[in-house]
Amino acid sequence: MLSKSPFILSFLLLLSLPLLFFLVPRILPPKTLPSIPDPDEMDDLALFRRATLASDGGGGGGAGTGIRRRPPSPPKIAFLFLTDSDLSFAPLWEKFFKGHGRLMNVYVHADPAARLHLPPTPSFRGRFIPAKATQRAAPTLISAARRLLAAALLDDRANAFFALVSQHCIPLHSFRFVYHALLTDAGAPPSSTSGGRLRRRHRSFIEILSSDPILRDRYNARGRNVMLPEVPFERFRLGSQFFILARRHAVLVVRDRRLWKKFRMPCLKSMKDSCYPEEHYFPTLLDMQDPSGCTHYTLTRVNWTGSVGGHPHTYRPPEISGDLIRELRKSNSTYSYLFARKFSPDCLDPLLEIADTIIFRD
C-alpha cells in the first residue's frame, strides 16, 4: 500500500493542476485594469467595417445603427455627445441649433449603466446610438468616440465635420459663427481635384503635443515597451479628449486596426494615475497619418488651473457672466475657442439668461 502512495500523490497533484489554473486568477487580484469585453470589440469591428465601406463608396447605409440615411445636402457638422450621466445643457444647445437643422446632426453615446434623463428637446430626440459601458482609465472612452464617428459616417454623407463634446460642454458662439469658422478655414492646405483645380481640404482641430513631464509614464502605462513596434516613444503624442475632425480623418479613425491593437490593451493597475488612453490615441494616430492636415490645437477651452484628480476646473453658477464667456473665447491661435468645459449642471439657468444677449450674439 505504501509503495503506491507516491503514484497516488502524483496522480492527485496532476489532477489538481487544472483546478489551480482555474482558481488562482480568481484568488489573486489582476495586475491590469479591466479590458474591453470581446463581444463589445466584435460589435465595434462590424460597425466600423460598415462605416468604412460606406465611406469608400461601398454602400452600407445606416443599417443596424438605428439611424436613417438622408439625401445629399450642404456640408453639415455632426455633434457627437459623449455622456455618462445627463444632458443638462440640452436646452442651451437647442437654442444654439435652432433654425439650422439642415446644417447639423446630433448623435449621443450614453453609458447604458447610467440612469439618463432624456431631454425633451427635438434635436436630441431619437439621436441616441447603440452604446456600451465606459469608464475612466480604460480604452472604452476611445471606443465610444469611435462608435459616434462611425454612426455619423453611416448616417449622413453630408457630415463634413465631427465635433466631439461632453455633457459638460457649452457653446461659446452662435451656430452661424461656428459653421462659418469651420467651413471657411483659411489655414486649410489646398489640394488638386481630378480636373486640376485647387480646392481647400478641411483640417481637423485636434490638440497634438509631443512633450509633457510625465509623457514617458503615460507611454509605459501598459508596461515597458509594449507599444512597440507600432508606436515608438518618439511618435507618442498627447492631446485633449475633445476635438473636431474633418470627414477624411473620421474615416481614418474608424478604419484603423494597427494602432488600436496597442491602445486597446488595459493599463497596469500600478500605473492607473498615468492611464488616459483617450488623450493619446487620436493625436498619435492623426500625427502619424496626416500631421499637416491637423491644426495641432483644440477649439474647446478647458481651465486646468486647480485641477483635482485629473478633472479640470468646474464652473459654478456664481462664476457665470458675460465677462467669463468673453474670456473663454480668447485663444492663442487665429481662431476663437468655440466650446468650453467643464460646467456644473446648475449653471444652465444663468447660462440661458445670457444666451441671447451674450453667448449667441457674436
Automatic annotation (TrEMBL):
Signal sequence, start to end: 1-22
InterPro entries: BC10-like, Glyco_trans_14
Major location (coarse): membrane
Annotated organism of origin: Elaeis guineensis var. tenera
One term under GO cellular component: membrane
Topological category with respect to the lipid bilayer: Single-pass type II membrane protein
Keywords, sorted A to Z: Glycoprotein, Glycosyltransferase, Membrane, Signal, Transferase
The protein, known as: Glycosyltransferase BC10
PANTHER family: CORE-2/I-BRANCHING BETA-1,6-N-ACETYLGLUCOSAMINYLTRANSFERASE FAMILY PROTEIN-RELATED, CORE-2_I-BRANCHING BETA-1,6-N-ACETYLGLUCOSAMINYLTRANSFERASE FAMILY PROTEIN
Subcellular location: Membrane
Top-level lineage group: Eukaryota
Taxonomy of the source species: Eukaryota, Viridiplantae, Streptophyta, Embryophyta, Tracheophyta
Designated gene of the protein: LOC105033072
Pfam families listed in its UniProt record: Branch
An MF annotation (GO) of this entry: glycosyltransferase activity
